[in-house]
Amino acid sequence: MGPGREGGSRAAWAAALVLAVPTLTGCGVRGADGAKEPPADAPARVVLDAYLRALEAGDCDAARALSTGAFARGSGDLCGDVRVSSARVTEPAATPAPDHVTYATVLVTEGGDDTLPGGETTWFYSLERTGGGWRLVGGGSGP
Length: 143
Fold this sequence. Notes:
Helix content: 25-40%
Oligomer: single chain
Structural class: alpha+beta
């Protein structure tokens, strides 16, 4: 093998590494269930879907990463209180302001209590656009 061929091989490896680094870097942003956190410019519906998948998986860290500090137990966050076995979003969303949307969801829960018995429940989620993108700010059985 001559010196020219070895240099070309190094250049090819360097190019492959440059292309692989952004791909590998993105692999680290996943919740415990393997779901990737949506980018900051993701629509509200995509953020809500990611939250619901984390809720179904019982991944409270990933779910709470998609919410504001105000969204806590007692303000609509169900993660850790009941088991959600399935969730679906109904359409369309209510949009009381350009940076605020509310979606109705249908949750199937297990292990509830008097305030949220097990079974199918309509649960509303409000999201606001923040500096970090759309985030959950509230939830409950009424809009």
